[in-house]
Amino acid sequence: MKRISRFIVAGMLSVVVLAGSTVAFAASYKxxxxxxxxxxxxxxxxxxxxxxxxxxxxxxxxRRQVCYSITVHSVKLPATGAYxxxxxxxxxxxxxxxxxxxxxxxxxxxxxxxxxxxxxxNTIHTNYSQYYVVVTTTNYPVGALRGNL
Length: 149
Known about the structure:
Number of domains: 1
Oligomer: single chain
Strand content: 35-45%
């Protein structure tokens, strides 16, 4: 019986050590973004100068996952989209991560893995100043609110 107890204790210690290493390996990177009007003109030529919001973006490279929580105010709702885009100098911005658009309450939250690799998520973290969150609306399809990571 003592021999079985030793194996059980050794097995439990192995599980604890493995669980501890998994937690240490699962790093995350959190960004809180202030969303402001983009000053982009709508189809009538009027720039947006009102609206505000916040976005919390959490990157999980090991899970190949991005989680988000977005709240917007004083823009036409529901929004039509929300994205993390790249803004490398000398190039057109491109969508890197598609997020859930804020609904009629002005909020959205969730997690996405669609098309994401560890490399992409690590690149966002390493070069965060080259990425921004943008929220689009029907009257500002290019972007009503925007904020840099």
